[in-house]
Amino acid sequence: MSHAPKINTAQEQDATEHTRWNFVVIVTESTFFMSALAWVDPSSVLPLFIGKLTPSTVIIGLIAVLQRLGWLLPPIFMAAVLGHRPRRLPWLRWPVLLGRLPFLAFVVYLWVRGVGSPATVIWFMVIAYACISLANGLLGISWQDIIAKSIPSWLRGRFFGAMQFATAVTAFGVGFVVRWMLGPRGPGFPQDYTVLFTLMGIFLTFSTIGCWMVREPVRPVLDRPQSVREILGSALPMLRRQAGFRALVLTAVLGFGISYAMPFYMVYAKERLGVQESIAGIYIWASTVGGAIASIWWGYLNDRRGPRAVVRGACVFITITPLLAIVLAPAVRIAAAAVPSLTDVLPYLFALVFLLGGSAIGATWMGATNYLFELASHQDRPRYIALLNLLTAPGALAPLLIGWLLNYLSFPVVFALMAVFGLAALIISLLMPAATEQSKSLPST
């Protein structure tokens, strides 16, 4: 039985009675959530905290992997739960509330017990981050579906652009506080990180309140439930018959996972370039400023040229970021033979790597999400979201793989491998058809 119409009704939707409300509420709550992560930034601050407790780089990769897998894997089960339900809002509210409580408990633990037992702190932290990620995976379909139903396609570029810009501006201010906290005038370890985790918990609380304020318009749904087996069974037909979906999956597997490997740039800067911890705040600024500037352009590009152009732009940034990390230090050292003072500037010039990396992360999310929204009808959107997440899950292992490779290979070699995968993703994205062409003939299940 076919569960999808012949045309993509999601493309034809107009503004609903909840468009203005959800635009403001979702942008605000998402800003709080993503800014919460900036207090203990996974790409710069969190590796420093972990480094004070253990020399293992695998733990850094493990948290990055859990963040991605928690988002990617649960939707396959949620698609079976939600496909025939016209109301998905309860499946947004309760996971976001329950999934963040363990992190608040971790903050309380730091205040009460401190870091006297490093192993306990690390695993408590890993569990807390895993619960946040798992909750994100459980609510992901509902959250994305409500966005697709209430934000018209012609407004989505500005919607995601506003979300990323507001996050960047907020996180820019966060960077000032982080730099002071981790600098010589800060309270010192472990109070500095305890305060940062506390501020992260406060922002998560405001984000949770925002999720409970979201409103949901009603759209067509499936006439009967789909089982997980049915959803999984439709994966191969979709990959065979839809070049756009196939290209999106391959691009995400080969390239998008690389964009989440930024924590290792911080490790490289500290261990190989001698960068001080207080510089971490500058790297947060670079990442967020890059994301802010780029979000305006990505949003404009999405609304004028379509999400495919954004995906291609993301792949370009993913490819050149590790290449810049490789060549920047040798280039500065060569130039320092003529101008010795350039050596002192290297830690600050390395912020360019984070600027480009921050720009890429926003583009991957905006481009892939909007491309998928245009591919799928309202009825089939949960299935498309779930299968994209499941099929791209191998790409989420990239940070863990990078952490493992760094035990055997040098940073430049690993960064070069990252660039090769980014280039492969770029080539595939250049062959990707427009989503509007693909949506005219959707596979049946």
TL;DR?
This protein is mainly alpha-helical. It is 76% helix and 0% strand.
Q: What does the model show?
A:
The longest helix has 33 residues. Helix 5 packs parallel to helix 7, helix 6 runs antiparallel to helix 9 and helix 14 packs antiparallel against helix 15. With 445 residues, the protein is an all-alpha fold. The N terminus and C terminus are likely disordered. The chain has a single domain, classed as Up-down Bundle (Growth Hormone, Chain: A), CATH 1.20.1250.20. The chain is built from 22 helices and no strands. Helix content is 76%, strand content 0%.
Q: How many domains would you count in the coordinates? A: 1
CA-based gyration radius: 21 Å
> Which topology does CATH recognise?
Growth Hormone, Chain: A
Please outline the major beta sheet.
Answer: none
- Please name the CATH architecture: Up-down Bundle
CATH-level-4 superfamily name: MFS general substrate transporter like domains
Q: How many angstroms separate the termini?
A: 6 Å
| Class by alpha and beta content | mainly alpha
Mean pLDDT across every amino acid position? 86
| Beta strand count | 0
Strand content: under 5%
**CATH structural class:** Mainly Alpha
Low-confidence stretches: 1-13, 440-445
How would you spell out the order of helices and strands?
Answer: HHHHHHHHHHHHHHHHHHHHHH
Helix content: over 70%
| Shape descriptor | globular
